[in-house]
Amino acid sequence: MRKIIGLVSIAGLALGVPFFVAPPVSQAVSITSVTVVVGGSTFSGCVTAALCTNKIWDLGATGVDIGTGSTAPLILTQTSGFNFDTSDIAGLTSGSPAPTVTVNGNLFTDSAKVLSNLGTDPLGAAHEEAVDWGTAIGTVGGIRVWVGYADTAHTNPCTDADGNCLPENPWQGTPGATFLGSPVTDGPSGCARPGITSCFDAGAIRIEAVSGVPEPSALLLLGTGLVGLAAWRRKHLQKNA
Fold first, then answer.
1. Do 195 and 229 belong to one domain?
2. Is 234 helix (H, G, I), strand (E, B) or coil?
3. How many folded domains does the chain comprise?
4. Within the chain, how many helices (H) and strands (E) appear?
5. Do 233 and 158 fall into the same domain?
6. What is the pTM assigned to this prediction?
7. Are 165 and 171 contacting, i.e. CB atoms less than 8 angstroms apart?
């Protein structure tokens, strides 16, 4: 009985120790394709040499590398004029399907319809649409996605929690972030809010990597433990043969 207990203890040590001595390692992910579908409209980002429907984001020659958590997120919003004003799409209603975001082939659904403003944008100079990042809309394939809305263009009070009309932290200027977007700097072209000459009226997407891959040293230790267990078992059988 003591031999069996010893065998079980060694097995437990071999299997369990690696996960105590070595935490997960952060893994960078390269974002090479993003597709957003809102109503009947599609907005895309892909690498420089690729063709994608309504390409508004150039993801560089080989993609955008993102880090784990908030260390190096990718943030996407309008890049030319109001070209990602995702609530201002002809035919949107409250009954329109939820917007979707596909990143590297992984599908995420904006069930709360943040990007489409619930399909109820009345247009005009007053209606305010700002929404903070809130809760991530999903984690798939080592990628986590949030959606928000940036709206510094309209005159009603900002509707986000801190009242600055942006889904910030992270946003433009955040250290480590890749920000693909640009505000409109000509007030008469669409900024109605007094005193604002650099404004956004656009959906926003935040993409980050998720940790969880074991360290190579942990895998090595696990393998070493199993080899030792096998050697002990072999010696035990030979001794009792």
1. no
2. helix
3. 2
4. 2, 12
5. no
6. 0.77
7. no
